[in-house]
Amino acid sequence: MEQQQVSAKITNRKTYWMYLQQMLSIASNVFLLRHLPLYIDRDYVNRILLMEGSIAFFYDEILETILALPYTQVGRLDMYGRPKKIRVYGQNGYSRYLDSYEFVIMYDNSWKRPLYVDIVQYASRMANIQRTIDINITQQKTNRIITADSSTLVSIKDMLKKIDYNEETIVKFDGIDVGNLDVKLTPAQIVFDKLEEQKENTWAEFLRLVGVANLTTQKKERNIVDEIRAMQGGTIASRYTRFSPRQDAIDRINAMFKDKLVEPLSIDYYDGEPSTEEKTEEVGDEYDSSESI
Description:
The chain has helices at about 1-25, 40-50, 115-140, 155-165, 190-210, 225-230, 235-255, and strands spanning about 30-35, 55-60, 65-70, 70-75, 85-90, 95-100, 105, 145, 180-185, 225, 265-270, 285. The protein is of the alpha+beta class. Among the domains are: about 20-115 and about 240-265, Upper collar protein gp10 (connector protein) fold (Beta Barrel); about 140-185. It has a three-stranded antiparallel β-sheet. Strands 4-5-6 form a three-stranded antiparallel β-sheet, with no helix packed on it. It has a two-stranded antiparallel ribbon with strand order 1-11. β5 (about 85-90) and β6 form a beta hairpin. α1 packs across α3 (about 115-140), α3 (about 115-140) packs antiparallel against α5 and α5 (about 190-210) packs parallel to α7. It is elongated, with a radius of gyration of 28 Å.
């Protein structure tokens, strides 16, 4: 029993990490930062923004390039709660103190807090629903409660193993009177179909949170474009809360380090499908609700 509990806990944890990694990957790739200096790792910037909530851009005179690194606050804040002095640090031990006129902080969202905390909650809910689905599906293997003499316990277990291994023919074991066996079947109620709907709704909530367009509806009729836009109102609002602070930081970076940049930085959404061919798509007056955006 203890070994089964340990195995179940491991599976629960693996399921949770699976969803967490998927969600973090999606949430960190909503926006595309263009024209970053070659020394800056774009994926690292997106990951720090998601995990820490902000990252500092500054110019390093020795490396002669702009860097983007996580930081810790040093001393007091200004009247708006912004750090007046920070210490930036790198994975290789790099460390440096900067005053307010030497750096620009880019925030992940308008609340200036890590979105990672909320994503962890959604990953936990998704894992909980998925594990419940797994258990309910497993329970469809009808449980068998067998009443028999204790002296035949081992033989009965061996016989049940043959059934579980899908053996077509089972030879009767000596000492077991099949006529005296009392077998009761206890099938579990099927609920995984309803849980699948709940999982889709939870996933849609997560996508709305991070600003990814998504349409989940059970309507069979066709929706016009205006209806689709109205249904995406929450997603648009979430996008703005994440896009606006990035754009503000980029404007300040371009102004502060204009002599150090080859090209001004810019930011876009990852709205198109990755492709090696250029495609031009037109939006019609109607949209089939059976598809997802």
